[in-house]
Amino acid sequence: MGTSIELCLGNVALSYSKNHMGIDYGFLFQDGDLTRKKPESINYEYYEEHPEEKQELDEAEEIFARTLSRVLPRLNLLGFTLEAARAEYQAQVAEAEEISNDIDIEESKKDYLTFEEFCNLVCRYPLVDLKSDYVEYDTPDRDIVSQGRFAADIDVFDRIPWSENSELYWSEASYLSERVCILSAESMLQVFAQNAANAEVEVTWEFGPIVHTGWVQREAFRASALQKQKVLIATEGTSDARIIRRALDVLRPDVADFFNFVDVDERHPFWGTGNLVKFAEGLLRIEVLNQVLFVFDNDAEGVDAFRKLEKLNLPANMRAMPYLILRNLGSFQLSGLKAQTFLISMDKPPRLSAILTFV
Predict the structure, then answer these.
(1) pTM of this prediction?
(2) What's the CA gap between 149 and 130, in Å, rounded?
(3) Distances from the Cα of 87 to the Cαs of 70, 80, 103, 184, in angstroms?
């Protein structure tokens, strides 16, 4: 039979794999999101009789869980925005319409939902209100009973592109999952977030059972941003890096793990604007693939160095920025001023690629 693994929002499954890891969703979570949940597939009577295997049981119960409101900043940072979800949905509609036109059968053509209509349907009821109890197969009118309140919206569901009329559902929650989760899990999270009542619903990735049955090694499941998703921030001096790093930890803890810094525990290797520019030129020559952000002071020397980098035609994975000037602070000198202006800059764009171009 095998073992499945799902990424879920509440009781709605967004992504499914069987006997293998599937998509790595570790980037949605951080180390503090590791918790435990008792899966139905575990024979607890066995472990009561074999307490020496408790460590194996602990592994089987592991799960990553994080509220939707705390997942959204991570999605936005990576470009999985609501607008990206809109584009993905419209692409699905366009593909369905093209196939319908090729078939050239009038009955096969549908009046597909607009993206706004799709979001309204998905968010019609708060997820916590959806019934998730299993409806037995011998229940009279099981299909309609399982659909619950959605049974009155069958015609609307039929206007979703690629929506299947399968019977792989057993409750309101599973029916919604079966019929509306046609986009990537990241996009569906943004769509479900349009209902404010879903903000504190947990996004869960229950990997314990698939590790327990031996299909995937425990080491494969790691929370935190993937290496390719991280940004290396290079600053003029040690204090700059330490201030920004500390500010991210305190003020943007939900995304702090997306940012690395040049090792400044010892002597800063690129002290001053000139050395930082040379560092950037060196990375250009070796065509580094990492995402790198060069941050300069907003003084005459820093602005001059920033302009020099602009003229180098930096590739898409490398960008530079000076600190913003907070004029409303007047003559106050704050030790965290650079970090504050940097974070204000971060607030402007909602996606990672834009963070590298927000000046």
Answers:
(1) 0.85
(2) 9
(3) 23, 11, 24, 12
CB 248 within 8 A of CB 309: no
Contact (CB, 8 A) for 170 and 146: yes
Give, as one character, the DSSP assignment of residue 216.
Answer: S
Residue with tokens 């011998």: 138
Query: What's the one-letter identity of residue 82?
Result: L
Tell me the torsion sign for CA atoms 88, 89, 94, 95: positive
Sign of CA dihedral 247, 250, 252, 254: positive
Half-sphere exposure of 344 (CA within 13 A, CB side): 12
User: Are residues 291 and 318 in contact, defined by beta-carbon separation less than 8 angstroms?
Assistant: yes
Separation CA 232–CA 139 (nearest Å): 57
8-17, 129-138, 292-301, range with greatest mean pLDDT:
8-17
CA distances 167 to 2, 132, 144, 324, Å, are 21, 15, 11, 56
**Tens-digit pLDDT profile for residues 103-152:** 655 545 679 999 999 999 999 999 999 999 998 988 998 889 999 999 99
Side-chain-facing half-sphere of 37: CA atoms under 13 Å: 15
**DSSP, residue by residue, 43-97:** -HHHHHH-GGGHHHHHHHTEEEEEEHHHHHHHHHHTT--HHHHHHHHHHHHHHHH
* Domains along the chain with CATH numbers: 4-220 (no CATH), 227-355 (3.40.1360)
Contact 59, 212 (CB under 8 A): yes
Kindly state the greatest CA–CA separation across the chain: 78
Are residues 347 and 322 in contact, defined by beta-carbon separation less than 8 angstroms?
no
The angle at the Cα of 114, spanning 109 to 116, to the nearest 5 degrees, equals: 160
**13-22: pLDDT as tens digits:** 999 999 999 9
Give the ranges where 257-326 is alpha helix by DSSP (H). 272-285, 300-310
